[in-house]
Amino acid sequence: MTDDYDAVVYDLDGTLVRLDVDWATVRREAAAALRERGVDADGRDLWGMLDLAEERGHADAVESVVADHEVEGAESSELLRLVDELPLSVPVGVVSLNCESAVRRALELHGADEHVDAVAGRDTLDARKPDPTPLLWVAGELGVDPERSLFVGDSRSDAEAAEAAGFDFEWASDRGA
107 FRET partner, CA 20 to 30 A, in 67, 124, 138, 161? Predict the structure, then answer.
C-alpha cells in the first residue's frame, strides 16, 4: 500500500476506533441546548444542528455538548483492526468529524498517537468533511501532494472529501475494518 502513496490519512470513528458515544442522546442534548436559546432544531440531524447553531450564533453551546460526549466516548472507545496497519513507512494523518481533543485522546489511549503525524478534527479548522479543506490542510502539514495520498474512511462524506481534495479513497470495510 505505501509504495503507491506518499501519505495515508485515516478517518477516526468507524475506521481506526469506534467512539463509545450514544449519538441519539447527543442529538437530544444538542436540540435542548438550541431550544434553551430560542432556536427550533426539529427535523435536523446533528450536523444540521451544528450548521444551524453556527448560523444563529450558538455554535459554542452545541459544540460543547457534542465535544463533551466525544471526549467521554474516547475514554471507552473500541480499537478497530485498521490500527494494526500502523506504523507505516509514509507519513500518517487523521481527519475526523469528531472534535480534535477526542481524536487525540482516542489515539493516545490506544497507543496510535505515536504513529500519527497530523490531526484535523471538526474544530481544528473552519471547515469539516465533506469540504476538502481538512484533508488539504493535513496534506500540507505532512508535506505531501494530495494526488499522491490515500484517504481511508467509512462514510459518504469521507469519499466526497477525498474526491474533492484529489486524494485516492478506500473504504475502511474494503481494508478489513
Answer: 161
What are the grid coordinates assigned to 134, written together? 481538512
174: nearest Cα among 146, 153, 145? 153
Report pTM.
0.94
Indicate the pLDDT class of residue 177, thresholds 50, 70 and 90.
low
The pLDDT confidence band at residue 1, using thresholds 50, 70 and 90, is low
- Distance, in Å, from the CA atom of 79 to the CA atom of 74, rounded to the nearest integer, reads 10
Q: Looking at residue 3, what is its pLDDT?
A: 79
What is the CB neighbour count within 10 angstroms for residue 12? Answer: 29
Listed in sequence order, the residues at least 6 apart from 46 whose beta carbon sits closer than 8 Å to its beta carbon are 23, 26, 27, 30, 66
